[in-house]
Design goal:
Elements (H helix, E strand, L loop, with lengths): L9 E3 L15 H6 L4 H10 L6 H17 L4 E3 L5 H15 L13 H5 L9 H10 L1 H28 L2 H13 L11
Parallel strand pairs: 1-2
Amino acid sequence: MLQLDLPHLNVLTKIDKIASYGPLPFDLEFYTEAQDLSDITVHLLEENPMMRHPKFEGLNNAVVELVEDFGLVAFETLAVEDKKSMMTLLQAIDRAGGYAFGGAEGANDTVWQVAVRDGLRGMSVRDVQERWIDRKEEYDELERRKMEEEMKAREESEAMNEYGDDEDLEMQRGVSESGIKVVRNPGAA
């Protein structure tokens, strides 16, 4: 990463599937910020017995030290089905590529003012933790109900467009339940 002259962005994908792997030893923010990684070596030893070999311990400690010394490693999160998550990632990509710092809007602003401007930040890691790990079932149920309501509203709107005003719609509903078919002639008044 230090040798590349290109913007670099690390992304933790499949966040929507993370709850299926069981509880995480740390909050999601620990993994995305990649700070104080020495705490994770203990959990590596518990998770995989092969990591107890001395050569792996030295390698793990060297990697942890390298990442902590430079402080350049961090991750963005992505849940593909979630529009907010996707928009947050796109904003991070725009910032990394410098796209967010161009344009005519705020032409007299410094790069720092543009970088910290409100609206450039989407979902925080805490929002992602709550949505996809802590309360996944509740949010899934909420989204399912919202989709059902939208579908019902869309169907009613289409019915309104097809049959005209409310009185005609109520008449059509009553008639359709009686088995009588109403045919409209648009030319007749």
